[in-house]
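Why does residue order matter? Because the sequence determines the fold. Keep that principle in mind as you read this record.
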Amino acid sequence: MNKLPKIPLIFGVTGHRDLRPEDREKHIKAIKNIFTKYNNEYPNTPLILISALADGADMLVASVACEMDIELHVLIPYNQGDYLNSIDDKELFHELSQKAGDEVKVLECEQNEDGKFTHCYQQLGEQIADSSNILIALWDGVEEPSNNGGTAAIVRYQRDGFDENMFDSRDGDVIHIIPTARVSKPNQDLDPLQKNVEYLGRLKRVGFKANLQRLDALNEDISTHTCKDQSSDYTLLQKYKKFFGDRANTNQTRYKSLMTWLIMLIGIAIIFLETMHILSGAGELYAWGNHLILGYFAGLSAAYYIYRYKMRGDKLQNDFIYSRGFSEAIRVQSAWNDSSIGLEKKVSSYYLRAEPNSLAWMRIALKNIAYMDSSSYQSAADWIEEQTAYFEKNITKRDEDYEHYETIEKWVFCIGVVGVGITALLYLAELAHIIPHGDFPSNWHLGVLLSGIALLLAAFFKKYLYIHGFKEERDNFREILSSFEQADKRFKGADKKLKQQIVFDLGKKALIENSQWVSLHNQRRARFEME
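Structure:
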C-alpha cells in the first residue's frame, strides 16, 4: 500500500539575468509572499516550480522555492555542456540541480546556422509557460519587439499565446509580475514589492480562486486515500485512473444505500399513518391510535434530515460525477500517450470546453496530472476495442431497461395520482358530512393530503428529468459507437500518420461525449450509474 501523490499547482519563472544586488532582499520577500499566499489559501495542494536555472531571476526564485520546501523541476533549453558555458554561477546551478534530483530535463533543441540558441530560449520559455498555472515574471515592464526568448517575449506569449484549442481562451493562467530594475538600465526606479497580478483567459480572479478551491478539496480527499491492491509497476496515470474509478463506485454505493434507507423510513411513516387512520375510527382505541400521527411525521422528518445531511453541499453526487469524468478523461490521455502512435496532445485542451467555467478546475487538474506523468498504461488499439465493447454493452442494456423503467414510473405515478385523488375525495366527503367521521381530526388529514401531493410532485419531476437524461445518454452512446466501430476496422491496417489521426479524432469525440455526460448529470442530478 502506498499514498497517491496530490495534484500540484505548477509555477513557472521567467526574468532578467542582471538583477540589481541592492534589490535582492526585496525580491526575496516578494517571491516568498507569492508562495506563502498560495500555501495558505490552498493548504492541501503542493506547489511545484519549473525553472531553467539561468543566472538572475531563475536561480533566485528557485533558491527561495527550495528554502520553502517547494519541489523544484529544472528544464534546460539545450545540451547541458553548452548551457553551462552561459551560466556564471555554476556552483549554485549544480547545487539547485542536485535538489531537483531526477526532475532535470533537457529540450531537444540545436543551435541555428549562426551558432546561436536564441530560438531555444523562446521554445524553453513557451514550454514553461504552457506547463505552468502561474508564471512568476521578474520583469522591468519594457516591451521588446521580437520573440527572442527574453522575459518580455515570454510574458507576451503567456498573455496572448494560443493553446492547442486555438480559438478558445486560456483558463487557469496567472502572471505575477515582480517589477525588476536591471543593472544594464541604471535609470529605472521600480519597487519589487509593488503587487501586479494578471488573471488571464476566461476565469479572472474570482473564477480562478474558486477553481483552485475545488482542486484543493480534491487533494484533501486524495490525502486520505491509500492505493490498495495495485501492482508495483502501475504508472502514476493508472493509479489516478483507479483512484477516480474507485471513488465513483464508492459514492454510487453510498447513494444507493442512502436511497434504500429513505424509502424504508417513508414506508414506515406511511404504515404509522394508515394504522392511525384505522384505529382513530374505533372509540376505545382513538386516544392511543391518534398519537401514531407523531410516528408519521417523525419518519418523514428523519428521512428529510438524513437526506439533507448526507447530501450536504451535493458532495456525494459531485464526487461521483466528477470522479467518473476524471476517470474517462485519463483513459483518453493514456491512449494519446501511446508511444507507438507518437501523438503529443493533452486532454485538458479539449475537455469540457463548452461547459461552465466552474468546471475549469477539472482541466487544471488534468493538465497537471499529464505534466506529472506522460506515460501510457493502455495501448491505443486496446482502448478502441475496449470502448467499442463498452458502448455496445451499454446501448444493449439501455434498450432493455428503458421501456421497463418508463413503464414502472408511469404506474407509480398513476397509483400516486389515484391515491391522492381518493384521499382528496374522502376529505371533501368528511367536510360535507357525507361520511360521518367526526372524531377524525380533519386538519391532520389536510396536512397528510398536502404532504402526499408534495412528495408525489417531487418524485414525478425527478423521474421526468431522469427519463429525458436517460434517452439523451442512450442516443449519445449510439452515435459514438458507430465512430469506434469504423475506427476499429481502419486502425489495424493504417500507417502511423493515419493512426494518429484516428486516435486523436476518437479521443476528442469521447471527450465530447463524456463532457455531455458530466454536464447532463451535473445540471439534472437525476441518477447514478457506473458500469
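Residues 380-431 form the longest helix (52 residues).
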